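ARCHIVE RECORD
Type: protein–small molecule complex
Small molecule: glutamic acid
Source of inputs: curated submission
Record status: active
Notes field left blank by submitter.
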Amino acid sequence: MNSLSASFATGTIVTGKPGSTSEPARYVGRFAPSPTGPLHFGSLVAAVASYLQAKANSGKWLLRIEDIDPPREQPGATQSILEALERYGFEWDGDVIYQSRSHALHVAALEDLLDRRLAYPCGCSRRDLSDQPRSPLGVIYPGTCRNGCDANETAIRLLTDDDPITYEDALQGTQTQRLESESGDFVIRRRDGLIAYQLAVVVDDEVQQITEVVRGIDIMDSTARQIRLQRLLGYRTPRYMHIPVITHANGDKLSKLTGAPAVPLDDAGGTLAAALRALQQDPPGNLATDPLQEIWAWAVENWRPEAMYGLAAITSESS
Ligand code: GLU
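STRUCTURE (tokenized, with ligand):
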């Protein structure tokens, strides 16, 4: 067994608060969809990967609906995501968690950062920043409001520095970012008053004691910002595994914006087998017609995430 499979197979992960003695934590994973549309094949594949990684490690798997951005949400999306996950035979531990219910915790973390001058109000508009250099993370914020701003409507930004943030992704290898020069100070509360994804996800992963985050590689760019937040807030950093993104034949990511349809509810077995193939799992040809329980049993038993090592994108069979 190579070191990659050995670390996948242990079932316990050593974590610890900075400065505290490390203690083994049981595996706790999660799937955290935003209710911006129904579950499509790309999000199903991410759900399957995080589920199998949790089950293969005898871990817990939590389901968190990230419903903190009402302008982007679609009526009925939460129900339709839950219905699809049930039809596909996912079994989550405990009740469904709604991120909006942690609002007070998000605000407490924000205030803590403001009190410690690790975050500050910023009145710059998108237009004010339109001439700034960009990186793959977006506009690099030049720090205009670091020393104060008198605008009425402000976002809140987190202070960054240029020390490299490095972590080992279980599939994509060593990742490093220097936040100050690659993103600049980033938004943790938006101008419209909503808590930004980066802060909410970090607070919730800590509160729910998540030990391993398995999600699409399209979110990998955010991970260093999330680690910066974890460090400043004294949280543990989970292990990360970013799986390849599923694309249409033209290379576009499957998403609501690119017209990805909802997963079919009447062919869960066939679609689950296709998700396993997308995850490079090589299921036997007749598995698709077996009862769902047997498909899941095969998938857990034969789960080999290392088959995706270094892969960034996979074209969907159906496009
Ligand atoms: N809510 C995010 C999404 O649906 C995922 C967040 C995460 O897994 O960290 O894209």
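CURATOR ANNOTATION: Confidence is low (pLDDT under 50) at residues 1-21.
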